[in-house]
Every structure is written in structure tokens, then in C-alpha cells.
Specification:
Elements lengths: L2 H57 L3 H62 L1 H54 L4
Helix pairs in contact: 1-2, 2-3
Amino acid sequence: MSTIDLEKLAQSQKANAQVMMTLVRTAFHGLEQLSALNLAVSREMFNSTASGAQQLLAGVKDPKELGNVAGSLARPNVDKLMEYSRNLYDLAANMQREITTVMEGQYSNLRHEAAGLIEKAGSVSPISGDAFGAAMKQMMTASSTAFENISQMAKQITDIVDTNVKAASDATAQAAAVLTPKK
């Protein structure tokens, strides 16, 4: 093996390590955001529950008032739950976009390097290189098509989830409106 090959191998390993570090950083950043979101929501829900319990104890004189107070307490909690769901979805969608961007970049580099290798193999031995090059080009075309299909499917799934989150939020908002007492 020549020095040039070792240098290319070292560069490739360095690039792979950088991609892995980017993916790990993205995952840790996402987990950090998820932890912060869960902690904030837990704190809010605890404070809301404690405040609601105090209102129930202090403000309810008869059973009819219990329904009114409970209904008025339900609406803010439903709103908080809906916001939590939206934030959770946004977090997941952002992580998916970041990971997809890294993977698309990595795949683009791989395709570029493979094309260079195919060209190099064809120039070294034109007769065997033609068959090898044709097979490799066909494999790269199939690989590119598969990658594009997977990327498109991931985007469609994200769109479907987005539509479902919006529909669930609307339905929850309507249900919460029914629970909230009219004044």
C-alpha cells in the first residue's frame, strides 16, 4: 500500500469520525432539550396542580361549584399539554432534519468518492474497467434512487405526523372548550 493510499484512508477515517461526532452531538443536544422541556413541564404541572387544589379547597362551597371550578382548571392544563406536544414534535422534527442533513452530506461524499474510484479503475485497465465501471455505475444509480426514496418517505412521514399533531391539537382544544364553563 502506498503513502497516498494511507493518507486517503486517514482522511476518510477522520471524516467518518467527524460525522459520528456530529451525530452524537446532535443526539446529546436533543436529549438536553428534551430533559429541559420535561423538567419545565413537570414544574408547571406541579405548580398548576397545587394551585388548583388550593382553589378547589378554598372556593368550592357546594357540588355545583365543583364542576365549574374543575372545568376552569382543566382548560389551562389542556393548553399546557397541547403546547408540550407541539414542542415535543418540533424537537423531534428538528433532530430528524439535522440527522438527515448530515446523512445526505455523507452520502453525497460517498457517491463522489465512488465515482472517482470507478473512473480510476477504468483508466488503469480499460477492458476490465468497462465492465467494472458499468456495474458500479448501475449500483450507484440504484443506491441513489433508494436513498432518494428513503429521504422522500421520511419527509412524507414528517408531513403526516405534522398533520396528525395539528388535528389532535384542534380536537383537544375543542374538547377543552366544551369543558370550560360558560360565564
